Amino acid sequence: MKIKKGDNVIVLKGKDRGKKGKVQQVFPKEGKLVVEGMNIRKKHIKPRKAGEKGQVVSTAGRMSSSNVALVCPKCSKPARIGHVMQGSKKYRSCKNCKATIDI
C-alpha cells in the first residue's frame, strides 16, 4: 500500500467524491484506510447507567485505498505514486511532477 498514516488524500469514488482529508488509520492487509470526516457512519449507543440517555454517534468508516489518491505536496494534484531510490533509501515520488514525497 502506497498511502500512509498522515498523508493528505482526495476521494475519487463514492458519496464523498472530490473531498480532501487526512488519513487517520491504515489497514494494509485489508487494503483499507480511514480518512477523517469521510465515509461517516452513525452508531446507536444504548444507555448503560440508570438515568443516562441513549445517543447517536457519528464516526468515520473504513474505505478502500483504491478509492483515494494521494495529493502531491508540491503540485497539489492527485498523483499516482512511484518509488525512487536515492542512495540506499527508498522514497515515494509523484508521477506528475517527479517530486519525492517522504523527504
Provide key terms for this protein.
two-stranded antiparallel sheet, elongated, SH3 type barrels, 2 domains, about 100 residues, six-stranded antiparallel sheet, mainly beta
Uncertain residue ranges: none
One letter per element, helices H and strands E, the order comes to EEEEEEEEEE
Please state the overall shape, judged from the principal axes of the Cα atoms.
elongated
Rg result: 18 Å
| Strand tally | 10
Q: State the domain count.
A: 2
CATH architecture of the largest domain: Roll
Structural class: mainly beta
Task: Please give a structural write-up.
The chain has 103 residues and is mostly beta strands. It folds into 2 domains: 8-71, Roll (SH3 type barrels), CATH 2.30.30; 74-103, no CATH class. Helices cover 0% and strands 48% of the residues. It has strands at residues 8-11, 20-27, 32-35, 40-45, 55-60, 62-64, 68-71, 78-79, 81-86, 89-94. The chain has a 6-stranded antiparallel sheet, with no helix packed on it. A two-stranded antiparallel ribbon has the order 4-5. A hairpin with an 8-residue loop joins β1 and β2. It is elongated.
Would you spell out the secondary-structure blueprint of this structure?
Blueprint: E1 8-11, E2 20-27, E3 32-35, E4 40-45, E5 55-60, E6 62-64, E7 68-71, E8 78-79, E9 81-86, E10 89-94
Antiparallel strand pairs: 1-2, 1-7, 2-3, 3-6, 4-5, 7-8, 9-10
